[in-house]
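To the wet lab folks,

You asked to see what we're planning to order before we commit. Fair enough. Below is the target structure as tokens, and below that is the sequence we designed to fit it. If anything looks off to you, flag it before the synthesis order goes out.
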């Protein structure tokens, strides 16, 4: 017990006596100090005493796509931690190919009496999807917030990164390195984030390199899937069209692009530059470390929770979109354009 107290005290930066007071539920400890001790318990893997376990203020559903893309677990962690700090219990519901659909997961969460739902990259981002499902959910009195995607038809708050600005950052960086033939690899065109990235890409390439929108969309934009294999396929097509740099709409696609380059005998970044999007956990440790546009996951996740809890509390946010600025993170996968080099 003494060893445990010492461990917890060291982790929390307090005295063993303070830890003992917290664990025994005694008064005279500041709230922030008490939280530090409880956090130290959690970090070290100790079980909280029964008297210190909080009663949940309610369940909050979080519906995400598959978790293979590490950006989704990262966002889920931010949201989950923010909800827990507010006394709520997050319930993670994940869509998988051939598994439960968004509608089925929503129904399951509603049946379990959730206080609200946060949708991440759901059908609200798909311009071909029927948005009446969200009208029906609102009619049931369930507050919800929508992350990554926007629809003017849905009366709800939206949380998004600035996809247009993300492309402006990536293309401007590559043009500054001397690249004049820059491709864009991204997902199916029916998704709002995809359309916005195309808009930002086309506008920036047009402004900086003087190409027409028709030339850019027909020659430099390649649609595929948001997977490693999708990145391989899209990058291969863009390299065939002479691109010396590829901007990818996800880090996973960027890793696929690097794989394709190496299969063709190219060096990254000496022969071809690659830029990702997300700045997923561990992406800084790839070979080479990936230059990417960092999605503002912490601020987006916290805003989603704050907005939902306001809805639950009876002060709903207006039908509007909160847009967060991304950040270019330059690492080792981009370099000056290879002079006189052609792709084949």
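Sequence we intend to order:
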């Amino acid at each position: 017990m003494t060893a445990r107290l010492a461990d917890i005290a060291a982790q929390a930066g307090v005295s063993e006596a303070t830890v003992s007071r917290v664990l025994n539920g005694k008064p005279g400890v500041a709230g922030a100090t008490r939280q530090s001790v409880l956090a130290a318990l959690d970090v070290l893997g100790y079980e909280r005493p029964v008297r210190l376990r909080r009663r949940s203020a309610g369940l909050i559903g979080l519906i995400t796509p598959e978790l293979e893309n590490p950006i989704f677990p990262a966002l889920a962690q931010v949201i989950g931690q923010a909800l827990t700090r507010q006394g709520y219990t997050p319930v993670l519901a994940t869509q998988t190919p051939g598994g439960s659909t968004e509608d089925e997961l929503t129904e399951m969460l509603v049946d379990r009496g959730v206080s609200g739902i946060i949708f991440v990259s759901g059908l609200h981002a798909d311009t071909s999807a029927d948005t009446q499902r969200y009208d029906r959910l609102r009619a049931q009195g369930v507050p919800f917030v929508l992350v990554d995607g926007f629809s003017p038809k849905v009366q709800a708050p939206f949380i998004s990164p600035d996809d247009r600005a993300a492309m402006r950052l990536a293309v401007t960086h590559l043009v500054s390195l001397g690249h004049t033939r820059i491709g864009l690899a991204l997902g199916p065109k029916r998704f709002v984030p995809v359309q916005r990235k195309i808009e930002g890409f086309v506008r920036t390439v047009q402004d900086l390199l003087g190409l027409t929108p028709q030339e850019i969309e027909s020659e430099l934009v390649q649609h595929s899937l948001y997977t490693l294999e999708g990145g391989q396929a899209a990058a291969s097509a863009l390299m065939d069209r002479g691109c010396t740099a590829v901007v990818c709409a996800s880090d996973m696609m960027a890793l696929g692009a690097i794989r394709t380059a190496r299969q063709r005998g190219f060096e990254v970044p000496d022969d071809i530059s690659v830029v990702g999007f997300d700045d997923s956990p561990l992406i800084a440790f790839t070979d080479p470390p990936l230059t990417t546009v960092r999605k503002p996951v912490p601020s987006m996740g916290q805003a989603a929770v704050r907005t939902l809890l306001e809805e639950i509390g009876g002060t709903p946010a207006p039908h509007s979109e909160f847009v967060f600025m991304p950040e270019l993170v330059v690492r080792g996968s981009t370099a000056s354009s290879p002079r006189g080099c052609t792709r084949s």
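Structural context that might help your review: The chain is about 45% helix and 15% strand. The CA atoms of residues 238 and 291 lie 19 Å apart.

Thanks,
Computational group
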